[in-house]
Specification:
binds adenosine-5'-triphosphate; about 200 residues; four-stranded antiparallel beta sheet; alpha/beta; Rossmann fold; about 30% helix
Amino acid sequence: MKLEANHIYFKYGGSAEWLLEDISLDIRAGEVVGLIGTSGRGKSTLGKILAGQIGGYKGDVLLGGKPVPKGIYSPVQLIYQHPELAVNPRWKLGKTLAEAGEYDDGLRRELGVKTHFLDRYPNELSGGELQRICVMRALRPETRFLIADEISTMLDVITQSQIWHVVLDYAKQYGIGILAITHNEHLAGAICTRKVFMQ
Ligand SMILES: Nc1ncnc2c1ncn2[C@@H]1O[C@H](COP(=O)(O)OP(=O)(O)OP(=O)(O)O)[C@@H](O)[C@H]1O
């Protein structure tokens, strides 16, 4: 199975020029594709389009040759650089996690998510603790592709490598394909099976 973006054109409202102009990209099951490019080039925007979080583009996003299903737990999961923007600030984190269904307790331990974190609101955790929960939410057997948008930039090197280790192991186990958006050439060199440059 592959996730593909075919001939995508997109601009934000009010802008005269295309931000994305005839962009095509595909990610196959089990691949770790690094998406690399200068700041402001539209990498995060493309990630959001692939994950179905932005509409109003021209072109197609297909999963296994069909439009990505909507209205259910999405098989294409996006993890953002800013975890605080990805969760409901008024919900305790246990509720946020439960929304996606039952969670895997082994995965919780591997990611270093303490059970008492789940009884707290997002502003009662550090950025790194919150990001671990967002990673945990996105790693489910139903996930087919993961868009990881600078997911570890706010973490120290040890935590960064611990989290990527868990993500890559999980992806391998379930044949998940990953698009890793990063500025970090060292990280891309260590984790990616292929790199795509947006210039
Ligand atoms: N919601 C929005 N409305 C209007 N313009 C936006 C919006 N989000 C992003 N942009 C603009 O679109 C351009 C591309 O942003 P995007 O975040 O996709 O780039 P990027 O390649 O991921 O950048 P970086 O590497 O700095 O994260 C930027 O010029 C940004 O200011």
